[in-house]
Amino acid sequence: VGFQQKISSSSAIKVSAYYKELRDLIQQRIFTFVPSPISQYQSYANIDFGTVKGMTIAYDLRRTGNIRMTAAYTLQFANGTGSDANSAATLVNSGEPNLRTIFPYNYDQRHGFNIVFDYRYGDGKDYNGPMIGEFGVLENTGLNIVTQIGSGTPYSGFKQAAGEALLAGGSSQLDGSLNGSRKPWQYRVDLQLDRNISLEFGDDENKKKSAYLNVYVRVTNIFNIINVLNVYRATGNPSDDGYLAASQFQASIQNQLDEQSFRDYYALKVANPFNLGIPRTIRLGVKFDF
């Protein structure tokens, strides 16, 4: 459901709302048979359900002179009884009944902003940029900037460290509710500067073929922001799960063949680079279209 309000001949604001109901999703559960040689067993069934609802406010500025821009804000609530087919595994393995409780999905991002800004020069009579004699310095050249901002997605916090980086990591009591904690906000700006070059092939004027060469420089995460993608559940930290400092594990750590080596190697493993977003990257490329 949505509506669009025209501000001028070149711009408009669009507001849309959505509601999505999810039913019969697959989830682990316990099947009980009485009387039977096998009193119960675990399998999968279509028992999960949930809803995704929200709204988006978007501003669209069509090409006006050299500028083209779109900006959108999305507010979303995604809740259900299971984020995937195995999210109830711990509950099922503990022998609890097949409970269905609503909580935020793993992908529930409450706030999201997306802004695209494009500044581009045309060619020929449409060119209005700097000149050197009769040469258009920035002809068919443009700058594109994409900004993405989003609030953190949920995770289930632990009350105590559990050695999540161990080969057989332990478990701990939930701190609050399932998916009751939130990761930090994420912020990223990407930039691309490119130029189109028109090419023609053939000597015969009637049989000439056209092609286009696009040369670009692309910079992702231009401000080199450290975005946190995943955290350890006891600390909310992407590079420390709290195991090495936890008092209840000191005796076990000290009983290792070499305590200092164990601490060093554990610290290396727990500093998982995949818990963080990509750093600034710069790419130079060429695209050929014909």
Architecture overview:
The chain contains 3 helices and 14 strands. Strands 1, 2, 3, 4, 5, 6, 9, 12, 13 and 14 form a 10-stranded antiparallel sheet that branches. A two-stranded antiparallel ribbon has the order 7-8. The chain has helices at 89-93, 250-254, 259-270; strands spanning 2-8, 11-32, 40-64, 67-80, 103-104, 111-120, 131-132, 135-136, 141-150, 154-155, 181-182, 186-201, 209-220, 281-289. Strand 1 (2-8) and strand 2 (11-32) form a beta hairpin.
Task: Identify the notable features of this structure and list them briefly.
mainly beta, 8% helix, single chain, two-stranded antiparallel sheet, 3 helices, 10-stranded antiparallel sheet
Q: Which parts are unreliable, with pLDDT below 50 for 5 consecutive residues or more?
A: none
Q: Classify the secondary structure makeup into a structural class.
A: mainly beta
- How would a textbook summarize the main sheet? 10 strands, antiparallel
Number of strands: 14
Order of helices and strands: EEEEHEEEEEEEEEHHE
User: How would the global form be characterised?
Assistant: elongated
Provide a count of the helices.
Answer: 3
| Portion in strands | over 45%
- Helical fraction equals under 10%
N-to-C span:
41 Å
Rg result: 28 Å
Mean pLDDT: 90
